[in-house]
Amino acid sequence: SELANRRAEYLVLSRDTTEGDIKQRREISAGSSQYLPGPAVRAACEGRALIIEGIERAEQNLLPILNNLLENREMHLEDGRFLVAHQRYDTLLNLLLISLEFILLLGHSFRCTGTHP
Hints:
There is one protein chain. The termini are far apart. This protein has four helices and eight strands, in the order βαββαβαββαββ. The protein has helices spanning 19-22, 39-46, 63-72, 86-93, and strands at residues 8-12, 24-29, 32-37, 49-53, 74-76, 82-84, 103-106, 110-113. The radius of gyration is 19 Å and the shape is globular. By secondary structure, it is of the alpha+beta class. It is 26% helix and 31% strand.
């Protein structure tokens, strides 16, 4: 992180590393639960470098999570939030919304309509 002149988050991967260790982990304290950010989320949200050690030891189910963050700059979080790069967010804001009256016909006997939540 000295080379990049920025603070860093450090993530050590092992066979025991879980998705929660990377993204968020849920903790219960004083009778209520809260999600605490993992190193990848802290790095992404605070503009820090993420240093990953032991990638060769990571279980295969963790690799798509890390790849999606590194390649697409996106991550679904357990608390319902979704991390997305600001360029993609700006693009999503400019998309046209589909009308709630939109109808999609599928074959002869299927009909799917939009409904208002």
